[in-house]
Give the backbone structure.
Amino acid sequence: MIPRSDLSLGQSMSSMDTSLTSGGSASNLSLAGKETGQLLSIKVLRLLKPSFLENNNVFGQLHYLQDEFDAQGTSSEKFHLSDKGAELCPTKSLSSDWSFLLSDQLVLPQSFGTMFLGQTLHCYICVSNGSNVTVRDITVRLEFQVQAAAAPRSELVLNEGKQFTLEPNQTFDFVLNREIRDLGSHMMIASITFANPQNAVDRQNIKKCFRYNVVRPMDFKNKFVSLPDGGYFGEFNIQNLTNCTIVLDSVKMITSPEYVAEELIPHNDLSLDEQLETRDFLGPNDSRQFVFRIPLKDRSRTGESMKSSASPGRVEILWRTKMGDLGKVTTSPLTRAVPEPRDIFVTLSKRPARVKIHKVFAVTVTIFSLCNRPLDFILKMLDNPAERSFVWCGVSGRPVGVLEPGGMLEVTLRVAPRSFGLHLFPRFCLLDKPTGQRYDSEDLAEIFVE
Amino acid sequence: MDPTFAAGRNAPLANFTNIQVMDAPVIPPAGALGDALNTGVIRNTSSTVMQNSPLEQYGAVTAGDYSRPGDPVKQFSIGVVDETAGDLTPSNSNFSSQRSRSNTPSTVSVGIPSVYFPSAASYGSFELLVPQELAKNVGMESLFSDEDSNVPFSIRSAWIPNERTSAALRALADSVPASDFLGADQITNVGVFSDRLFANPAFDLALKLVGTIPQSLLAISPDVMIGNNDVRSLVAQGFYSSAANVSAKLLGLIDQGFHRSGNSSRHTPESLKIWQLRIASLFMLQQYEQASKELEPFGDLDNPDLYLEFHRASFGDASSGSMVPSQLRLLHACLPAKLGNPKNSLERLFSSRNKIEALLNNALDGRLPAGVAQGNSHQFHSYWQEQRAKTLYQIVAVGITSENFEVAISTIKLLQKLLPSKAELLWHQCGLLYCHIGSYRLGRICFGKADSFSSGTLQNYSVLARKAILMLCEHSPVHALEIYKEMHQRFPHDAPAANGVAVGYFYSGRMSESMAFLEDLVFNKPKVFLTEQSIANLVGLYELQSIQVRQRKLRLLSLICQHIPDGAFVRQLRLTET
């Protein structure tokens, strides 16, 4: 057989992601075409990761291996096997009542499984000569086609420039890793050409098609909530669309240059025991919510950011399926609703969450300018006869100063609560003296009165 | 020869040949015939009645077939079924012919069978329990000497009947006539479902594909066990098909054989023990359908006639409790999961667990079941705590197969609280489970905990094994290769390590090296390395390489025939007849 080191693919395929450091479990790809009567055959096995052998034993059997071994093993060997049997190998253990279905014995993948977007297709390809004649001048060519989309076809000649020869019972085998970036039906067409052993003039051809379908592993929904300083809270909801259990390895926000991101409630700070209490896997149709705070890197650029429609970034999700088979998807740049173009942005930057009744308290109102002319404001406190839970303390109609383009102003207001419970902060309005334009505040906050 | 006996012998043989008629031209060498027979491959190539053939001695017989003249078996009648109305006292001399006729429909009673309750008078005339002598002859003694035998039966039989059953049992104690309180569905009329004989699947396949069966090289032969009707040893040693055949025969003896389902028969702790072993064998042979059909008449294993109180006349007034062995209960609970209904399995397991909890709580409050002496209270606790743990283990197993990992993990956590002495094992398995799901991070935490509990000479082995699995889960089998190589070097007789090495080679693109490595071990030390996983891995490699696949698989098959008692994992070979 041809030792791997002889293969020229080492180099020729590196551009195609072909390295040997892959894991995965496998199964025969669905196979079209007959191989009877052919000199050469080609087989492909998907290298999913090896799985644990499911231990199917019931209730107290399978002593025989151990007994027989004890009968003839040397003392030291006996020791290893029999002791280990009791502790680690439920299949050989006398007390197989005490075993789960899993044993730590690895078996090669038995089926192709499902191919998900973002996974890497690891496969083992083997060209073998099962005939009794030597086959010469072999070229193996792989072509990848994606049925949907206008995805380009790609072709890979495995032994470019160097045709090889297979003696009877010899094989030519290699591992191929290919990242799957398109949904839908995929096809890998393998064609082998070789010299006709009978006359050495014609070339014979074998073509084989391997089809597989790529499906979406998860659904991603996002929602952004604006922060007063121009940043956002991003809520991301990830739902498992597969029919198996997946583990979310990491969910990371790759932000645009002007933002940074931090995950709220990160798991890494937890102690080991606390981590064991968490559950990092998602069953079929389960979903999980992640919340990120995405502030601006440079807070002085708040005004610009409010107007720009630049995306806060994209989200990268690393996930694993059985035995830690890795998959990676990245969302397209996320869009968030750009706030309506307006001249100012008003927020309560400092305020108490709870206050005592009849006790005057102060709040700080911050006003950002989003327009390109200076604004000169008068602040008017508004009275809503239907809702007088809070009353203003102070003078209405006083000037608050000039707001330069892109600048901000802070105003302190004093309010007295009059009734118990959770109430909306009262409204006020700002009048621009030069233009007479009136800006009404919205419902800025709810404050609890006790 | 007495014509009665001749008829008795011919009838069932005719049945056999219908079950498994082998191709006439395939005549194995003399040595192979015995092997074929001892696992139930029956071949009758001529019309000769196989008198004194090895058939009987290998247990390939049904209910009617052991009634040879002079056979002590026929002198005992078991069961008090009234099939022939009016004749309440079975005649011993007629017993054998009656039983053999029972395979023909004419004598099978139709409709709800009447249950005959022995009065004190009739009771004296024959034994209701399996008599000692019979027990000796059919090897039932071995059934009693199982792992539970040091626990008094009064402890094992503790159980809480459901409401309907306990009402029936109370009524029985008050001597209400049976017809007033027993519904037809409350009588457990069981029987072996089919008269099919099981054969060692490996032998079967070898016969079909090669025509001969390689001589078994096992140190233990099933012959003696079959001769002794020692079902328990057969199951324990892995001769499942023989165990299934012999158990069917034993059940035939107590009127629960083929075609007896629906006819009333009598249950004893021993008969239920045979059922347990039979169902376990069927599980191992993956005959879940048949197991389910045979378990169906048992209902939820809670019918009044499965309680000792029901049979006070024979067991004495003080006896109480359920005769159902706890393992049969577990098998019964796990069966639906095998047939694709894990939810039903979980329901049964949880209900079992609740009853066990109730028993334990009652005992804590000082309310031991009648019949258990106060002095035995400690033993009672430890026995039922173990049963609880076993039930929880099965819950985990069902959780894993049905991918209900939530249940599996929370149950393991519960077990960790209940069994502090098994901390290492439980953390190890919890880690395996997390790796199985794909969460190497949590797996690593669990393995770290297992390492901290690990001690003694095996520490090195387990620590290495966990490291390798983590590496495989986080990266790839190629990364784990070095660790497996080290394990293989230090523990050269460990099959999981050897397979780890082979898998590592394969994933690095070195298929031929991988195959040569594994083949060398399997063919040179089959006793150690011929495991289900090695077979599965070799077959996977053969199929991928597609060179001489069939020849190579046949080589493995002959190895399996030689070294595995009942080659259940012959299916891993994926060999077809064409």
